Structures are given as C-alpha cells and as structure tokens.
Records
---
Amino acid sequence: MTSLALEVLPVQAAMHACLAIPEHRNIVALASAKFERPQWVVTPEESASSRQAPKMSGGARFRGAMSAPDPVDPQFALTPEIVLTGPLPLGPREAQQLGLLGVPHSIFVLPEVEPGHVAELREWALAVAKHCWGGVIQESGTILRPDPESLVDLRLYSPDPQPMSIVQEVVRSVLPRAQEYQDSDGTTALYTTLEYDGTIVIKRSRATRDLPPALATVDWRDYGPHVYEVSWIPPDPEELTQEMPSSLHMIARRRAAPMVARTMAMLQQKFEGTVLDTEDFMVQSEALQARAQGKSQGI
C-alpha cells in the first residue's frame, strides 16, 4: 500500500499522514464542528497567485525585470498549534485506486504536532473521514476508512420545547406504534420496537452551556437549547462498539436509519432548529432527505 500511495498521492502529500475528502466538502464547516476558530492561513487563491504572479527583480543590473515568487502551499489552521497543508487535488481515478469514492478529492496533509494534540487531531480526522465518506492515509500508506453508515443517531437543537405527547403526534405517521415511557432520569421519552431491527428512541432534554462548536456558525435564530434526540438501539447493542459488526446488524441498521432520518425530518419541520449527527457535524436538509429515502451519502 505504501508504494501505491507514493504513486497516487500528490508529491507534497506522499509519505505524510493525510486526510482525503470529496472535493465539494467544505473544510471550514468540517473544522467548525470540533474547533472554535478554524481559519485559512494561506487561502487556495493566495497559493495559486504565488505560483502565477511575477515579482520585480531586486538586482540593479536587471532593475525592472520580473522573477517568479516563491510558491506557497495553502495552509488551514484548526488551531494555532494544528495547521494543515492543503487542499491538494486528487483525481477520481487516483481516489478509486486508494479505495475511496470515484470523485475528485481534496488532500490535507496532517502536521506533526505536540504529544498533547496528537489524539485531538487524529480523532477529528477520523470523524471527518467518517462523515464525508473519506479516508485517513497513514504514513505507512495504510488507509483508514471509518464506516459512514454507522452515523445513524441524530439530534435537533430547537428553540421550541414541547411535551412528549405533542412529539408523539408529530412522529405518528413515521412511528405509529410509538409509546411513552419513563427514562432512568425520570423524564418522559418515546420508544418504538421494530419487528426485527431493534428499537427507535426519542428523548428531549435541555442543552448544557457547552453547545457543540458547529452551532456557533449558525444564526442564533436557527437553533435553540432544546435537544430532540432520535436514536437507534440495535437488537444486540454490543455490536455498536465492534469494528466489524455482523451482517445481521448492518441489515437492521440499513432498515432503521431511514426511519430515524424521517422521524428527525418531521421534528425539524414542526419545531425548526439545526440537526447534528453523533459526531457534531451539521446535517443539511438535502442530506437529511437523502437519509430518509435510504440513499447513500457517498456522492
């Protein structure tokens, strides 16, 4: 795999740990899900200009002559201590060779960071790869492709608090057998037992002061402190922690995930707000509808 990565990756990325995501994904939005103030240090436009615009020569003999500037790669800072290099382009064919989706990709070279930031950077990169159907390419050339279909549960941050009796009416067309029950903390929740595929649970709570960073990018009128969570409990909950769950688990998950998404779509339509997945990435309405229809997000 190392030799393949060397042949396929851009020269600047070879032999470095990299994050590969489909080109149309917005790195600023992806970074904002975990970090408070990510920003471009050198924008792609500035990088392109550094490779094109000539500069005046400083020599007296050749005063007025033009010379090429030193090229600068684009740089994107998650924090002042964690600065990525990229995006660097990766074509559809090359992406497929690496086991990724056959679409244009962007490569971001992950920096070497202080030990205190290693876990933070790795966790973010893997979460982004999972959310975007991308991959993390290690220095060895091994490619990690976290399972994006494992992101089933959804949360709605809404300004509209409603009792579970109202929530039950809202979701009745999707979950006609939803019933109330008392959760372990004494609050009322809803559950629906699926015939073969586990259980769907709906809970409502009030958010703590520490809201997900992604919400800082949204107008305050587009979300609220009341959290409606729709989650799926599989027939064997232990399989949620397994890297390679059984085929029966994956079949149940594929059937349950659209129901979770349809339920969330109903809640968002009624109560408004912003939808996040379990990794705190925003789920836009188009993606939510695609989930509800059982369509792959790997496009």
---
Amino acid sequence: MALTRADGPLSAAAPATVNYRIDGPAHKLLMHPFPRRVRAEFAGRTVLDTRGGVLVHETNLLPRLYVPEEDIDQTLFVPSDHTTHCPFKGDATYRTLRVDDRVVENALWAYPDPLPDAKWLAGYASLYWEAADAWFDEDEQVFAHLTDPYTRVDVRPTSRHVQVLAGDTLVAESHHPLVLNETGLPARWYLAPEDVRVPLEPTATRTRCPYKGEASYWSVRLPDGRELTDAVWSYPEPLPESTRIAGRLSFLHEGLTVLVDGEPE
C-alpha cells in the first residue's frame, strides 16, 4: 500500500516536494516477487501452495498476491462464465472453488491474454483473500491480507498532550500517550485505560490488521446519555512488531475530536 497511497511513488500524482518526474500513466502497476512461501486452505484442502508468488501494486489499491498457475490445485476449480475488464490489465476470466458441498463462486481470476503493459501477468492467477478459510505466510497463519514489504509500523512514547473531546465533554486526556505511525495512514494516539474519563462499553466488533493483530472495540457512553458506537479500539494481544500498544486505547469517531498539543488532528 505504501507505494500507491497519497505521496508514494506509484500514487496517481506525485507530491509537490519531489525532485523527479515519472513519465507514464496516472494509474500505475508494479509486480515484484513475494519472498516467502504462501499457502491457502479451504474445506481442509490446500488450494494453493507457492514459493513463487508475486505482489502486484496498483495505484490506490492494496497489493494483490498472484501465484503461478502450476501452484494452484486445478482439480478444485471450475471455469465460470463470469468475466471482467480492467483498462490497465485486460480481460479477466474467473473460476469457482468447489470442495465437496462447499462452493465459492468466482473465487479465482486470471488474465490469460493481458494488455501489453501488463504482459507479465500471463501465467499467474489470484485468489480472493476471503475465499479461503485460512492463509499462511510460511507456517504462520495471517489475517486480513499479506504484509506489504513497503509498509512499516512505528510506535513511540511521547509527552505530547492528547485530549479526546465530544463537544465540550472531555472523554480522555494524556501527557504520556503512544503515537503509532503506519505507512500511508494518519498518526494514531494510544492512551492508557486510566486516561479515560467516561464509561466505555464493550461491543462485539472485531477487526484484524496484518501488522497489529486483532482489535476489540468499545462504545463511549457520554454524560448526556449519547452513545458513540465502536469509537474506541485496542489490541489486547498485538503482534510482536506492535507489542507496545498492548492494552492501550485509541479513539476515532465522527462525534469525537482529537486534540494534540491543542491542535485538532
């Protein structure tokens, strides 16, 4: 994602601070090898197992894993009538994944005759992430999507003054937050539970991040009775690269304003 977001070298428009010019289309493509073995499982079967996967970076999109056709269990896929057209890659054909009584329509796609500017896609296919029951990067199960080698997460302690407000109500305040910077995304501020000044109510919402882990959510209960649903999240057991934020809380909701040193984020 880092290459294709806002000010990345493959974004639709370079920022004003660059001293280079890339001659080419605003919508850019880049394919490069993914350095590790990747497997996908469905209904107890390994549907793909590759050491030759590649990531395709495309402007404003998440990187997409494509694998050589020979690394796919072709016996589990049935050709579909479904097709799509991409003005940058060409016409895609689709295959349905079928194991016993479980079926995922149009789970896999490929470009048998890609456009000249994407001719390197010939012989590769891509499986929708959500089509598989489980994905493995080497022998570790991964969630949400594969990590992007051009994305990193940095967590740093800081003495910045962070306030979270709902109108005039102080929801949380800290002089010792952690700031998390993830490539291509705004800074997120993580506060200790004791910094929160209003009741929080847990919700059933869960999300997964391939860089941070599984997040739990809370709603904010304001003194006037209003409830801001899923306005707070935390990673109780984050992945190793993000362990510093374990148990810390971050706030984001249209009903909240986050001030850092008195300035709105």
---
Amino acid sequence: MLITYRILTILLWPWIFVFSLLIPSAKNFLKTRKEDKRRILSYPFAPKAQKVVWLHAASVGELDQCKALALVYKKKEPETFILQSVFSDSARDSSLEAFPADLKFRLPLDFPWSYNFILDKFSPQVLVCMAWDRWPNLLQAAKRRRIQTVLASAVITVPKGFLKKKFYKAAFSLFDKILTSHSSGEEKFKELLGEKKYIKTLGDSRFDSVIQKIETSQREFKRPKNYPFSQVFLLASTYEPCEKLLLPLLKEPSLKNTSFWIFPHKTDPARIVQLESEIKSFTSDYTLYSKTEFDSLSSRVILFDVLGILAHAYRAADFAYIGGALHNRVHNVLEPAYFGLPLLSGPRITHAPEAIELNHRGGLFIIRTKEEVLEILQLSSERKEAIRFSNRQFVETGRGAAERIYSEIKNPFL
C-alpha cells in the first residue's frame, strides 16, 4: 500500500504543476512553499550543534496542540531548537509568527523528495504530528534517518472499506509511538494496528492551550452596562446552515428576553453584508460590533465582525452554539466548556472526542430542529448549574496533557 501511495504521488506531480498554472489558489499554495524553502535553506544553523524537535500541525486546532507542547519544551529545554510546520492555509501567517518555535513554515506537498532539504539541514531527533495527521512519505523519510516519530493527542475515525482500512493501517504503523487523547481512541488504534503497537492514552494538549489562553489573558469581557436581556445565547463559528436553523428563533415569543451574539466563522466584508441582510429579515434590533461602543449597546442581536474576541465572550454568555457540525464538523468546544456553558451542536461530532465525551456527560446537546433548541434554552437553573460543574470538571481533567506527552517523548525509545 505504501509503495502504491509513493508511486501515485510521483505521478501526481505533473498534474499539480499544470493546475498551478491555471488556478490562482494552487499557484499561491506552491509559491508560499517555494518561498519557505528558500528561507529555510538560507537560515543560519549549525548542523548537529543542538537538539532539534519538529512539530507538525494540520490546521488551526492542531496548531494549538503543538503550541502547548512547544511551551513545555521552551520551559524544560530552552536550548532545544523547535521546528513548526503547518499544512492548511487556514492557519494564518500572524498565528505562525506568534508561535513559540524557532522556525515556522508551511509543510511541503508529500512527495518522496520533498523533505530532504529540511532533514539534511536540521537532523531532528523527533518528529511529532498531532491528532490524525499522517503523511506517509514524510514518515518514511524520517524513519530512514532513524528519527523518532510520534502521533500525539491522537484521534481516529474508524476507516470504512477494505482499501481505506489497509491504507490507515500502513500509514499509522509508521509512527513509533501513538499517544491518544482519550481511552476510546486507544481502543480503536489497537483494533486497527494490534496489541503490540506502542499506544498509550496521555490526553489532548489542546486542553492546556485553551486553559493557558484563558487564564493568562488580561482581558475581562462583560455584558454591556444595563443590558436589557436576561439571557445571552452565543452563536460561535457559524455558517449558513447554522443561521438558517437558528435565526428564525428571533421570532419566538418565549425568547423575547434572550439576546443573540453571533460570531460567524468568516468575517470578510461580503460575508458580513450577507449575514446582516439575513438578520434584518427577522429583526431590526441588531448592531454591528465594530460600529458602536460595546459597553453602551442594548441591541438584542450583536454581530461580531472582528477576530480575537470569541474565547473571552463565552464568559458573558448563558448558552453556546458551536458551529460546523450541521454540514461538516464541529469546531472548538473546549473554550465554552471551560466556562461551564451548556453547549449545542449539530450531529457531526465523530471526529472530536471531546465533543463526544461532553455529549455523553449531558453537557453538549445535538440539535437538528429549532424545537430542540427551544427546549434546551429553557433548561432549569438547577440543570444549568449541574452542566456548568460537569463541563468545567471535564476541561480540568485534561490539564497537564502537554507535560505528559513531553515526558513520554523524553523516555528511552520503546
């Protein structure tokens, strides 16, 4: 299977080159990686002069997992040189610039020859991927150089079909250690790879990133003074399917004392204009966050059109809807869980063990209809308090995962 994958990636290269000439986004994708390669090759670094650890993240969520582990390395081994790569363009350049690593870059496409210039220059001792990310050519290149390969905060969706299962088994077998985020993941990996594979549950380092982000922030977020609504329903990372389901609730008489704070997944001008138009079809009592002094707001609907506020705004809410899972996959549920909020989500949470666990504990509700939403928004104060305690406790159980992962990587290879 790995040989087949290797051949297919080689055959794919000419087509990718052609696409890059025809499609601007593909051209920019490759251009960014070419610029990173030049920057890496010109970076002043003495080979084998210091220990090197390479952390890799697929996207934004996995970058948070890497961040927690990188901070532990900076604390325990300040002399260790940390490489941080990321694949998805959803991880903004500003996020990478602020990341606590010595050198940050976009991961090259997974061709057999793609990583030699990195491995030749830095000779890392360890390669750590996060969650589910596995690039067979990268992992094989690392193993040929006897680099320890680790999958940390690991999760897996059980593969369906013979070929997919065979590929998963071949790819994940390339890791020397698989450190799962939850015990359920450990069971699934052992079922796929066998009992002899080194698999151990140590937790999800994203918990540490979320906790650290909230507890070290100097920002206090409170409701506006004399805010006339007794309950705040916060809608986080929303897409059109989310708004199609939830905005009609603005017409419900039983929710007249409930305000809606909306944080769309994207805040580009076209998206905001579109969302404003949709809100106006249900109510005129709305305000754009960037247009008015927040402390003086009294609008029932507040549309947040800026970034960097969501994690703090949960503090002022009573309920939180987490977007993505009506049509694709749920977004980050840990931040609102930290504040003990009852959570609402669409049904597509199978990729997120933390969302599944919160659902099992009764603190995250799967919703498909507005009637289900109405029922949840009218929970008793006793039930809300029980959920607040349970969700907050769940986040606390994940504290320290990054330290545990670091200690496991430090252990002699098994």
---
Amino acid sequence: MPTPGETAKSAPTPADGASPASAPATPLLRTGRIHISARQRGADITALVRLALHLPQVLLSAAVVLATACTVEALGGPPWWLGFAGWALSGLLLFHRPCERVIARRLFGLRYPTPKEAPTLRAVWREVTARAGVDGAAYQLWVEESPELNAMATAGHIVGVTSHSLSSLPPPQLAGVLAHELGHQVRGHAWATLLVLWYALPGRLAARLLWRLAKRTDRMSAGATLITAIVIGAVVIALVTATYGLILFPLITPYLAAAVSRRSELRADDHAADLGFAAELMAVLGDESEREPVQRPERRSLGSADEPVLTRLLDSHPDIHTRLHHLQARLERRR
C-alpha cells in the first residue's frame, strides 16, 4: 500500500505496436496498480560533490561576469548589478521546457521519436518509471540518430536513447538501459552536470582567450609581449590572491571530476539493479564488451594495461568489467 505522500495510479496498457516482452524474472509490462512517489528527484552525494568540485570555476566565472558588467556600466551601459543578476539567474532557464528542447536539439543532436519508434519506447519507459514510483510523463523521450549503443540523461527532464539501441535491443534490455538513465535523473546527476557546464562557461571562455593571447606573443614586438605578459601575470596573481589559491584547484579538477563521474555511473547502475534490471543491463554491457573490439579494433578497451594511466584517470565511465562486477555483486546481495 502507498506510503504517506504517495498516490496510486492505474498502470497504463501497452501502446499499439509495442511488444510485451518478458524479463527473466518478472514480466516487463505489468498490469495492476503502481505508486507514484511525491518526491520525483533529489541529489545524491556524487551530484553534490560534482557541484563542490567546480565551485572555483564558478567563482572565476562570477569574477569574469562582474568585471564585464562593470566595464559595460563604465562605457555607459546598464548598472553592473543588472547584468550580474541576469547571469546568476540564467541557470533557471536550463529547466524551462522550451529551453530544454533547444538544448536537446542544438547541443546534443536529439530528435523526437518517429511514429514507429514511439510506441515501444513509451511502453518500456512506463514500466521503468512504474517500478521506480516516478511519474514517467514528467520526462520527455528523445532519440539520437547514431549507430552506437548508448543513451543519455540531459537537461532537466530529457532522456535520450540512440536509434541503434532502440532498434537492436529487446524491450527488457532497453528497459535496463533506460532504468540506468532514470537513475541519473532522479539522483541529480543530470541537472548538476548541466549547471556546472553553464556557470563555468564564462571562466572557460576567459581562460581560452588568455591562452590564445599567450600563443600570439611570438608574433608581437618585444614591448607588446612584455606588456601582455605583465597583464596576464597581474590577472593571475590577483585571482590567486582573491581566491586564496583556489583558482589553481581547476588544474586537478578534471581528474577528481572524472572519478566522481565514474562513481555516478555505478550509482546509476545501482538504481537500475534496485528496480530489478540488473540482469538485463549486464546483458547489454556483456554484448557491448564482446562487440567493441570487433567493430572498433583501433580503440583500446577502457582500463587496459597499455592505456596511459593519466588517460584512464580522465575516463568519465568505469570500464565494462568493473560495471559487470559491480552489478553482479548487487544482484547477489538482492538475492
């Protein structure tokens, strides 16, 4: 029976054209009643750590935006606080549905499912969200035209899957992949990543501009080179002093962020396993592990011994064998 704060809904029947395949232990498309939780999403420790790791970059971006706003005001533009406040509040637009759709199309190259794809995709998604106690209608399903076996959780309410995954995976295995992506959404991984990318953007653009100026010093006269070096040095010293050295933290942030990203992938696997899709997700990973050396022999397996250590430390995903071992341990614990 539903716990306090939950409401019961009747489970929808499969859409026309959907094939009601069965998972190994329980039928994929069930009938009866499901419980929709009042809490649709949150933020686990990996999402919070990701935000904390990129705080120096966000502070750098704030300094860049503030300096730009003050310069515009000095040139006769609007007050500095107006531009700064606009940037600070702009992150809210990332969760505005029309803006999410623009991000999905322009940034990630996603499209709406075709009439042939939609029934199966929606039927499988209903089963995944029903097991999770989540309102599936709160999310939008998109498709990436790609020959890769992949899926993604992006923006505030968007779950995408490649056309190859949709056409080649049987419904139980597709459900395992979508359950993994739902884990990214409900645990806060997707929105945390998006906010970090957005609010760190001005600082990255400023750093890229300074780097380009530094690369052009060989084309400048001796006097211009000296002035440029003095300006860049003064800016770096000012930022180091103002941030108590935190401005140097981004030098190791990519490695720490990659480690957190790998952990968040394992937590999303845990979410899929807790919903009963461990075996299905393991089947997908196992097939991909066997197929990748054949389809892409030039690509070394993740975590292989001949791969440079620093490259492995920058991998955003754990190697497949680690994920399989983690899922197997989770499956045995549930038994």
